[in-house]
């Protein structure tokens, strides 16, 4: 898929670094310009993950033929619905769209048709699908990626950050054009269109129940009383982080929560002896942390958290052999089918068929293992039609073979 070529550094946007649009008049002029442009619209967004609470956009970049590049401050211009309407008929080109779509939706930008260059790269079998690597491999240009983890809530944004942001959309449409041709040549274009549509149709994730259970290191906490300490500290941290608009980990690291749950400190002095509580932000809220620990200690047993919450799907695959050996055999057979097909079509197994669909199908298989029934089950589990057309028959055949041999 790759070929040797001279790699040229992409150092400056073709028209220079555009000014950041931060007022209604500038946005209106930019909307007119993009409405008059032609072809796909390249879009990217920069967030402040790890610095701010949530994942809102702090810079939105766009580029379109005939309109050039635009950089928008979505904090100063939080409503991009006019821009959305102006380019409603255009194909929107994104890289790793599932990362940017939520924050774009927050500001009123909702693509109707999309091309995801990362997802296209996966379907085409590229081993590395980061934007910089894809641009270098496909176009022979080198992007500088030094500011991807920067705090984009910074104001004013430094010039070198803005240069980086503008370059992220500089050749995105050109990358799309080459990948589109490769998808067409390989017979995968319709597959890609189904995948892009599925990404656009995916609803925002529902809020997690008991999100505190995702605290890193919580597996070390065994007693329900200690779990209550994790919960109370997590909820307190979340409130403080939200009010201060800080990433929760910058207020108090997960390691501090887990250590406090294991040690159960009763005094501020005991808290300060936990090294993870020595950060400036953590020290500022010592009374809050101690109050949270005290609440957990004094809760009646009826209000303590359950040791775990039941999942809505199969158990982890590493437990299948003990819990249901027949299911473990079905899973192994289905995985082998998917792996072989993925290898044949030069793509990752998870893109050929979602691992969760394979697990759910094989944990509770239909009574009938004919092609139509298996296809229906895969469809109900969210598989796309192109995936079903490739996998339903061989999976049904593999599972039927196990049943005929009496192994399941």
Automatic annotation (TrEMBL):
GO terms for MF: ribonuclease D activity
One Pfam family in the UniProt entry: DNA_pol_A_exoN
Stretches the record annotates as Disordered: 299-323
UniProt entry tagged with the keyword Zinc: no
UniProt keyword terms in alphabetical order: Hydrolase
Enzyme Commission number(s) from the entry: 3.1.13.5
CDD domains, A to Z: RNaseD_exo
Gene3D superfamilies named in the record: HRDC domain, Ribonuclease H-like superfamily/Ribonuclease H
Start and end residues of each HRDC domain: 223-303
SMART domains: 35EXOc (SM00474), HRDC (SM00341)
Name used for this protein in its record: Ribonuclease D
Lineage: Bacteria, Bacillati, Actinomycetota, Actinomycetes, Streptosporangiales
Gene: rnd
């Amino acid at each position: 898929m790759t070929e040797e070529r001279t790699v040229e550094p992409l150092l400056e946007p073709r028209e220079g670094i555009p000014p950041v649009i931060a007022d209604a008049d500038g946005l209106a002029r930019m909307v007119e310009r993009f409405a008059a442009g032609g072809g796909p619209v390249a879009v990217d967004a920069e967030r402040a993950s790890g610095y701010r609470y949530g994942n809102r956009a702090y810079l939105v970049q766009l580029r379109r033929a005939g309109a050039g590049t635009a950089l928008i401050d979505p904090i100063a211009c939080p409503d991009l619905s006019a821009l959305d309407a102006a380019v409603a008929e255009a194909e929107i080109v994104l890289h790793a769209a599932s990362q940017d779509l939520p924050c774009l939706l927050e500001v009123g930008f909702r693509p109707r048709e999309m091309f995801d260059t990362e997802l296209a790269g996966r379907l085409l079998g590229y081993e590395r699908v980061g934007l910089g690597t894809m641009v270098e491999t496909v176009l022979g240009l080198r992007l500088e990626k030094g500011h991807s983890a920067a705090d984009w809530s910074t104001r004013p944004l430094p010039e070198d950050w803005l240069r980086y942001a503008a370059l992220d959309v500089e050749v995105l449409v050109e990358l799309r054009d080459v990948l589109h041709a490769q998808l067409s040549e390989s017979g995968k274009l319709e597959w890609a269109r189904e995948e892009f549509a599925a990404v656009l149709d995916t609803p925002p994730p529902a809020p997690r129940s008991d999100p505190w259970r995702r605290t890193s290191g919580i597996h070390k906490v065994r007693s329900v009383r200690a779990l209550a300490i994790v919960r109370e500290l997590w909820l307190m941290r979340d409130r403080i982080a939200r009010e201060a608009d800080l990433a929760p980990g910058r207020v108090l690291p997960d390691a501090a929560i887990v250590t406090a749950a294991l040690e159960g400190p009763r005094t501020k002095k005991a808290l300060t002896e936990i090294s993870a509580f020595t950060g400036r932000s953590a020290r500022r809220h010592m009374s809050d942390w101690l109050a949270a620990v005290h609440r957990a200690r004094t809760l009646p047993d009826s209000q303590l958290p359950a040791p775990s919450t039941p999942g809505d799907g199969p158990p982890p695959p590493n437990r299948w052999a003990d819990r249901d050996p027949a299911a473990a055999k079905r899973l192994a057979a289905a995985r082998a089918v998917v792996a072989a097909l993925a290898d044949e079509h030069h793509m990752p197994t998870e893109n050929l068929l979602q691992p969760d669909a394979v697990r759910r199908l094989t944990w509770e298989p239909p009574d009938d293992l004919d092609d139509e029934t298996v296809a229906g089950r895969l469809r109900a589990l969210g598989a796309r039609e192109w995936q079903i057309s490739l996998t339903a028959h061989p999976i049904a055949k593999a599972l039927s073979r196990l049943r005929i041999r009496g192994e399941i």
